[in-house]
Amino acid sequence: MKKLHNLITTTVIALSLVSGYTLAQTPEEKGLAIAKERKARDFGWGDSTAKAEMILRNAKGQQTVRKMKIKALEIADDGDKALTIFQQPRDVKGTAFLSFSHSVKSDEQWMYLPALKRVKRIASRNKSGPFMGSEFAFEDLSSFEIEKYTYKYIKDDTVNGELSFVVELDPVDKNSGYTRQLVWIDQSHYRAQKVEFYDRKNSLLKTLTSFEYKLYLDKYWRPSKQTMLNHQTQKSTDYVIYELAFQKGLKEKDFNKATLKRAK
């Protein structure tokens, strides 16, 4: 009986310590843990191809539609590589954008402009500029990497009908156009449901909302539509994916700045 009593006492103490550790977890530790789980659930997809369009709207609601196709490649121990080729309308046809995301060092990005017949590198200090006249900045097109930010859990909240963690992300890169981001990550699948972007004056600049998530390969969730609203100009951009396929056999040689002029 005494041994049983000692066993029960030891178990209670152990559970108390575990509970105490959980309660003692700082907002920064919890934020980082959520970010790591989000990344872990989206690892291993390999490569993908997509057909998509961007719908650009000005403050009066007038819109321009741009169609493109995208290739992406997951890189082990670093950020992803992505190639976007514009197909319509005629004034942007043939424009190609190549992005090498990195987890630690600055991202590398290039644009091929058919009118100039040359490849232009996007400087790190210009990453906050608009991508092809849209409300997406060049830095918004980088893959999510843990090392790019510091983290802080803020609260629980519900968005898009999903109970979510709200986590503050502070960019490590001094060239970022944002002082911070607030990200709503749903607790069911760790998907980013909404992101608020704050400018260098710490004023709300943009909100990105994701809709109609679909499951691929029984593991990877992707939104069919994302809307970026600029609160300061009232302009917006919809990013809509029509076709998306994974594991198409893409290789690193398919993402080469030397072949941007011939990208199709």
Describe the structure.
- The protein is 14% helix and 44% strand.
- The protein is mostly beta strands and 264 residues long.
- The chain has a single domain (39-262), classed as Clam (outer membrane lipoprotein receptor (LolB), chain A).
- The chain has a 13-stranded antiparallel sheet, covered by helices on one side.
- Strand 10 and strand 11 (204-216) form a beta hairpin.
- The longest helix has 23 residues, at 2-24.
- The radius of gyration is 21 Å and the shape is globular.
- The model is unreliable at 1-22 (pLDDT under 50).
Key terms for this structure?
outer membrane lipoprotein receptor (LolB), chain A; 13 strands; mainly beta; 264 residues; 2 helices
